[in-house]
């Protein structure tokens, strides 16, 4: 590895406010934004460009030279040029020998080329030390002070010293470097800005499918059925009543779906007698998006709480209350307090409030800033133990609410069960199987398997 004097200079401890000189090839949007940020952070910036004419877009204190001249002035050269133009670097191979080349490029499509742009650059200039960085930061974020965008900069490269030099620059710019390992990781880093919420796709499509199903289900039973058989036009139920039936159902089912893959995984491990065989792909993918499923469930629980709070403000609610009072007054009736009903209603509300509280706690601990500050055991305690407690409370909340009329034949319109009965199927199944799994006779072999024990070791080959 060539250690030219400029490299040594770049690594020397900085005793003044002025940092070393960094070269940027390309005076385009990104080159200019990065150069501006670097000058602000105390670096000297020299641009390598096809045209050495200074335009007023170039940061004021920067120099603009030819590529060859600029490269000689710095140990670190940032290539702010699209991959398709990299060929122009080949004649500069000698000057770039031993220099740290920072590939910041992105592509237009996922896996657009067989190799990553950074690996391609390393193949073109084998004597240079290529590091991938900065591609996840946009020119706009750099210009706007990186205050309202992600500060994470993924860095990878085969040369540890070169990587450290780039990570030091990242830190000096007020960004957070994240070492992703060798240059092999460059493909993944280049694909990262092209992905659109990859972990959210399955939870969002699943939620949309379930919402449409439950909404139409409620529409049929609460509006169409009532219109046909009772001649009541309750179409306004579409605004609040039906959403307030769909939201808790969605929250409960999605929360149960967060814990269901763990149950499947335990059953599969018990059946196979080993943890050393991969789970089916669908289960792996499901496990990876549990956090997203939980956050969507929390959003539905929150909407349910808001819809419930506005219920007394509705014209329908005040009409129903006044109708009951007037009818009691006309018939000279008094309604004694039904203690059982009062207990049921208070317990139902208390269970809902406690369940929602734990739900919010689960959401908060899933935030990276919080989960980074708890250890593995604490994280598992909240997500698993408190998570199951939240599921128990929310399931009990639904059971107490609908318990009485689940058994009432009038709840079955068109022989269909009420939506709340449907919502209880998955949560109850999860809780019952979980209860079986924590019985000592099942839990013991499962724990052994998870610690590496195998019932039949040849199965793991
Ligand atoms: P740009 O505005 O089009 O600038 C590209 C620069 O490349 C040009 O200004 C030009 O600089 C130089 N160039 C163009 N054709 C060339 C050729 N044939 N030979 C040599 N140099 C040539 O693009 P950009 O937005 O700055 O993006 C530059 C790189 O940064 C890309 O790889 C992009 O994927 C990556 N990136 C951009 C952003 C962003 O937000 N813009 C974010 C992350 C990564 P000179 O005229 O000075 O020679």
TrEMBL record:
It catalyses: 2 Cu(+) + NADP(+) + H(+) = 2 Cu(2+) + NADPH; 2 Fe(2+) + NADP(+) + H(+) = 2 Fe(3+) + NADPH. Pfam families: F420_oxidored, Ferric_reduct. Residues 21-107 form the Pyrroline-5-carboxylate reductase catalytic N-terminal domain. It is found in: Endosome membrane. Keywords: Copper, Endosome, FAD, Flavoprotein, Ion transport, Iron, Iron transport, Membrane, Metal-binding, Oxidoreductase, Transmembrane, Transmembrane helix, Transport. One of its GO terms (molecular function) is metal ion binding. It is a multi-pass membrane protein. Belongs to the STEAP family. This is STEA4 Metalloreductase. It comes from Oriolus oriolus. The lineage of its organism: Eukaryota, Metazoa, Chordata, Craniata, Vertebrata.
